[in-house]
């Protein structure tokens, strides 16, 4: 065995001898040697799970030569005895911007609609051609911060744009510049933020960014097949970087699910960079099968001493402060592979305390070490070089006084590629304690505490007056400066001495007048570390996670029930009309039976006598529960985007809609452009994921718009430049895009019928034209924002020209003027009950609009277009009775069956009929009454809102808030760092809302 080890060592030596040095040496004496360094008698963590007691680590030329208990130490070795100390692999942070200058923000406020770049991708937020190593500049000061925290290697990249280019791998070697670059291109980066260097308008929303990524990947595939006539350096770089580690900065749990969705569509394997809230959606996170990079940045406690400020805090923010330290534990326990990063830390000094806090809250220490060493190394594909102390690895390791994640442990040295960086003097003698100090026969009391390598001094005179003093220690030399209490004097006394005996210190003193005398100090008491009572206390009680993890969330996800409603007044919306004293059985998520004297032994009986049972309200036009932008107004057409990508399943407006009896909504794109984005039809399954909320097999819809918004008349822009700027220009947009879509569709039909068999190249996939072609093929339906009669007629004429039908005019406040033409075209109407004169183009609106169109034979619905209005659509329906003498039964259909017909889902919802989905609402009285309240709102047999449970929730929420505020006040009493309470300002989207 020893012979084999010697052979290995000499083989290493031979390789090093013949390695050519091509960097010029401008020193008079060569500073490199072929000597070995042997670290003996240490507890060596070769990996987090491979531990050697009293072992030897042998290094040479920046590499690990051997580890073990029987390592033969060559004669030309420097031996360092580390008895009682531990060696760990240095940490790796694979997600930083270390050494990268922050990109300069473009200050031109004029929106750019086409790129100014030549030879690159058409969108300036696609910057895949950027290489971090080309702009990298080693940051010595930042490197020292990282070294002190235990890091030896960092991945770094330019944090800018949606496709951000390649990242590089850097060794934190402060002593040898030529060795700092481990790999020039190791990662490829993406994120959900536009580049700050461009004023290009598109994309202006999260859904736009997702659509852009999809189009980019389609274009990449098309480009790689040699279909492009021109060279595209951005796509070239994307292609060249495909085999690198793909890192996506999602920065949020829901965005992680969105990024994983794109990865699945295109067969990619993103490593997702999260933000610490993954525990709130852990099961969905787990289903992505993704690996993660997780920051260890916990929110500071809120200063809630002022009750008025405390009242501004939302429960979800109070909870997140309380629950965030458990994130790493939850991720680990659910088998999710993740590395840790220092990203987002306000200061590097927070890294260790935060990590120890996570461990205190249950994060396993071995898993913590893996997340800082072997896992990032494996994710980077560099396990043979970094992350362990196996033979051949870089000699990157830290030397500590003990177990690395013990609060008492001192990190002494951080070696990177065999170069030592001293964090704390390992040879420093412990002089802490209490002493009798004598300076030139004058007596003092001297207390030395703090850390061994960074002691603190406290000197007191015989009459108990404290003197200001500062103590430093280096190489066992002690130096102390004693300042006089008189702040007007600049004189001071200096004590200097070499530590030979920690019980008796002595040396030379230079007095304020320059004379030299002797000083001595005799230890009278050993050092005893003060017990920090705050550290001895238990962790704060962690509040349970709810679904979603906000106020009124469910303690567990609700399940379908078998329910039997007895003796209800049932509004069927069918030919049976309104049935009195009728039973309704719901089972397996469906309406199973309607009639008298129904029984089911497995059912929970609900006494509905004197109450009204209806189908759930359907809001045909809503903008609630959308993340980061309701409009993608960067182009005059954004048919490629879809609201389905950005459903926010945690919006409290969902719960409020349920409390108002709403079970289904169509979430529409805004009206910033003539051709908007695709919509999402959702069932409000409070506590479920966004994907679970999406209506299954939903028909395709898209938002179009007419009027002031699309021509930027009310955008507040001094010099609007986006086409169109007139109403006639809007018509031209429609004509041009449908003509292009028609040609696109024909090209694909030709290719699919003959091209696949021959040599014809496939057309470029264009998500925008693909969507518009679906309209031409009656596979997608238009819901069009409209006001003025001339434009309503115009769009119907365009539709007739291209042989399709407009499905729905929404708002349609001048619909009463053209009801006959609408009936002839076959279009439906989704309007307001009584909104008028809120802007110029609705001056002719009247509250009789809905009933007039209804009487003309048009399918009419009332919608909300507003988060507040959607809670009381039952009252909006009642206005049809007031203004148009519509019967109550028909008026109720305006918010139930009719919107279901407009959305092409009336075969499953919209009425109380056997076999339909059990989406029903139990009201305390006639639902058209202003006194009506929803007592139960049920979707597919699951009770998602219960008025009695709601009352219990209010009490529970008040109790939880009080408990959390109590915890925060305790944190303040402990002297912890606090932050000011912040009120979360929520933007409620409307058709014309533009995200900044």
Core attributes:
elongated, single chain, disordered N terminus, 26% strand, 8-stranded mixed β-sheet, 996 residues, alpha/beta, 43 strands
The span between the termini is: 68 Å
The radius of gyration computed from the alpha-carbon positions, rounded to a whole number of angstroms, is 35 Å
Helix content: 25-40%
Output mean pLDDT: 93
- Which class of secondary structure composition applies to the elements? alpha/beta
Tell how many strands the DSSP assignment holds: 43
Specify the oligomeric state. Answer: single chain
Strand content: 25-35%
Low-confidence stretches: 1-20
Summary?
By secondary structure, this protein is an alpha/beta fold. It is 25% helix and 26% strand.
Task: Report on the architecture of this protein.
It is built from 25 helices and 43 strands. The two termini are 68 Å apart. The longest helix has 29 residues, at 727-755.
Write the layout of secondary structure elements.
Layout: H1 2-18, E1 36-45, E2 51-60, E3 63-68, E4 77-81, E5 86-89, E6 91-96, H2 132-135, H3 140-148, E7 151-156, E8 163-171, E9 181-191, H4 206-224, H5 233-240, E10 245-249, H6 253-265, E11 271-273, H7 282-287, E12 291-295, E13 301-302, H8 307-310, H9 315-323, H10 327-333, E14 338-341, H11 351-360, H12 365-372, H13 374-379, E15 397-400, E16 411-416, E17 419-422, E18 433-439, E19 442-450, E20 455-461, E21 466-474, E22 477-483, E23 493-498, E24 504-510, E25 516-526, H14 533-536, E26 563-571, E27 578-587, E28 590-595, E29 604-607, E30 612-615, E31 617-622, H15 652-659, E32 662-667, E33 675-678, E34 680-683, H16 690-693, E35 700-705, H17 727-755, H18 767-776, E36 780-786, H19 789-801, E37 808-811, H20 819-825, E38 828-831, H21 849-855, E39 860-862, H22 873-884, H23 888-893, H24 897-902, E40 920-923, E41 934-939, E42 942-946, H25 947-973, E43 978-979
Parallel strand pairs: 1-4, 1-5, 6-7, 9-10, 10-11, 11-12, 12-14, 13-43, 26-29, 26-30, 31-32, 35-36, 36-37, 37-38, 38-39
Antiparallel strand pairs: 1-2, 2-3, 5-15, 7-8, 8-9, 15-16, 16-17, 18-19, 18-25, 19-20, 20-21, 21-22, 22-23, 23-24, 24-25, 26-27, 27-28, 30-40, 32-34, 33-35, 40-41, 41-42
Helix pairs in contact: 4-5, 9-25, 17-18, 17-19
């Amino acid at each position: 065995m020893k012979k084999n080890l010697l052979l290995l060592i000499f083989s290493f030596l031979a390789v090093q001898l013949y390695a050519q040095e091509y960097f010029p040496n401008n020193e008079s004496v060569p500073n490199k040697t072929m000597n070995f360094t042997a670290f003996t008698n240490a507890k060596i963590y070769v990996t987090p799970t491979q531990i050697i007691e009293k072992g030897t680590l042998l290094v040479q030329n920046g590499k690990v030569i051997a580890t073990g208990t029987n390592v033969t130490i060559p004669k030309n070795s420097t031996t360092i005895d580390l008895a009682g100390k531990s060696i760990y692999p240095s940490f790796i942070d694979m997600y930083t911007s270390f050494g990268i200058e922050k990109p300069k923000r473009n200050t031109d406020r004029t929106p750019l609609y086409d790129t100014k770049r030549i030879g690159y991708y058409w969108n300036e937020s696609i910057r895949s051609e950027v290489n971090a190593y080309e702009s990298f500049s080693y940051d010595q000061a930042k490197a020292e911060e990282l070294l002190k925290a235990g890091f030896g290697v960092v991945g770094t990249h330019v944090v800018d744009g949606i496709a951000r280019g390649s990242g590089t791998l850097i060794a934190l070697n402060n002593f040898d510049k030529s060795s700092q670059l481990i790999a020039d291109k190791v990662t490829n980066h993406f994120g959900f933020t536009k580049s700050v260097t461009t004023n290009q308008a598109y994309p202006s929303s999260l859904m736009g960014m997702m659509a852009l990524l999809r189009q980019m990947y389609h274009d990449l595939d098309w480009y790689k097949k040699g279909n492009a006539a021109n060279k595209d350096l951005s796509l070239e770089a994307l292609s060249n970087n495909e085999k690198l580690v793909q890192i996506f900065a999602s920065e949020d749990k829901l965005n992680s699910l969105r990024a994983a969705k794109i990865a699945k569509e295109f067969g990619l394997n993103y490593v997702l960079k999260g933000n610490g809230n993954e525990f709130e959606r852990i099961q969905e996170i787990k289903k992505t099968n993704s690996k993660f990079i997780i920051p260890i940045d916990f929110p500071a406690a809120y200063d809630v001493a002022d009750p008025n400020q405390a009242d501004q805090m939302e429960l979800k923010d109070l909870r997140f402060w309380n629950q965030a330290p458990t994130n790493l534990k939850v991720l680990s326990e659910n088998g999710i592979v993740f590395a840790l990063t220092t990203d987002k830390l306000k200061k590097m000094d927070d890294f260790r305390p935060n990590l120890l806090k996570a461990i205190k809250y249950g994060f396993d220490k071995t898993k913590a070490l893996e997340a800082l060493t072997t896992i990032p190394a494996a994710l980077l594909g560099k396990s043979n070089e970094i992350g362990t102390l196996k033979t051949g690895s870089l000699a990157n390791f830290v030397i500590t006084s003990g177990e690395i994640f013990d609060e008492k442990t001192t990190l002494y040295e951080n070696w990177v590629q065999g170069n030592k960086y001293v964090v704390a003097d390992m040879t420093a003698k412990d002089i802490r304690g209490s002493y009798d100090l004598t300076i030139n026969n004058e007596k003092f009391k001297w207390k030395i505490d703090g850390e061994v390598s960074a002691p603190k001094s406290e000197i007191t005179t015989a009459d108990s007056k404290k003197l200001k003093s500062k103590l430093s220690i280096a190489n066992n030399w002690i130096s102390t400066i004693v300042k006089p209490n008189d702040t007007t004097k600049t004189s001071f006394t200096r004590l200097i001495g070499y530590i030979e005996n920690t019980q008796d210190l002595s040396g030379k003193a230079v007095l304020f007048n320059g004379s030299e005398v002797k000083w001595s100090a005799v230890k009278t008491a050993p050092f005893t570390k003060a017990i920090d009572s705050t550290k001895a206390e238990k962790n704060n009680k962690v509040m349970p996670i709810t679904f979603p993890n906000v106020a009124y969330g469910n303690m567990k996800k609700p399940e379908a029930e078998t329910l039997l409603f007895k003796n209800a007044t049932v509004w069927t919306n069918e030919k049976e009309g309104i049935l009195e004293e009728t039973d309704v059985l719901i089972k397996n998520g469906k309406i199973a039976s309607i009639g008298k004297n129904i029984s089911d032994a497995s059912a929970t009986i609900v006494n509905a006598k004197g109450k009204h049972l209806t189908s759930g309200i359907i809001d045909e036009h809503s903008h609630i529960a959308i993340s980061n932008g309701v409009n993608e107004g960067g182009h005059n057409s954004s048919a490629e985007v879809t609201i389905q990508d950005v459903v926010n399943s945690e919006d409290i407006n969902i719960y409020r809609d349920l409390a108002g009896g709403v079970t289904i909504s169509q979430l529409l794109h805004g009206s910033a452009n003539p051709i908007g984005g695709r919509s999402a039809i959702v069932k409000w399954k409070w506590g479920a994921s966004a994907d679970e909320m999406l209506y299954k097999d939903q028909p395709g819809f898209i938002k179009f718009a007419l009027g002031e918004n699309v021509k930027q008349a009310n955008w507040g822009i001094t010099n609007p430049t986006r086409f169109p700027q007139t109403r006639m220009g809007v018509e031209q947009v429609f004509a041009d895009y449908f003509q292009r879509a028609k040609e696109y569709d024909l090209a694909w039909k030709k290719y699919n019928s003959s091209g696949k068999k021959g040599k014809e190249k496939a057309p470029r996939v264009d998500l925008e034209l693909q969507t518009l072609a679906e309209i031409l093929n009656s596979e997608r339906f238009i819901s069009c924002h409209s006001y003025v009669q001339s434009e309503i007629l115009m769009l119907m004429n365009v539709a007739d020209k291209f042989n399709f039908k407009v499905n729905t005019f929404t708002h349609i406040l001048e619909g009463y003027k053209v009801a006959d033409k609408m009936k002839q075209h076959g279009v439906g109407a989704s309007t307001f009950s009584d909104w008028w004169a809120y802007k110029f183009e609705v001056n002719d609106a009247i509250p009789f609009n809905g009933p007039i169109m209804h009487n003309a034979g048009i399918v009419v619905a009332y919608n909300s277009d507003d988060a507040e209005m959607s809670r009381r659509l039952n009252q909006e329906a009642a206005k049809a009775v007031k203004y148009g003498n519509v019967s109550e039964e028909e008026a109720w259909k305006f918010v139930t069956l009719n919107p279901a017909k407009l959305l092409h889902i009336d075969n499953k919802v919209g009425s109380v009929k056997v076999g339909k989905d059990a989406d029903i609402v139990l009201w305390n009285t006639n639902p058209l009454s202003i006194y009506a309240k929803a007592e139960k709102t049920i979707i597919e047999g699951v009770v998602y809102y219960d008025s009695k449970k709601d009352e219990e929730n209010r009490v529970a929420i008040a109790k939880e808030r009080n408990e959390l505020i109590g915890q925060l006040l305790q944190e303040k009493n402990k002297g912890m760092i606090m932050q000011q309470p912040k009120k979360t300002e929520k933007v409620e989207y409307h058709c014309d809302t533009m995200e900044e």
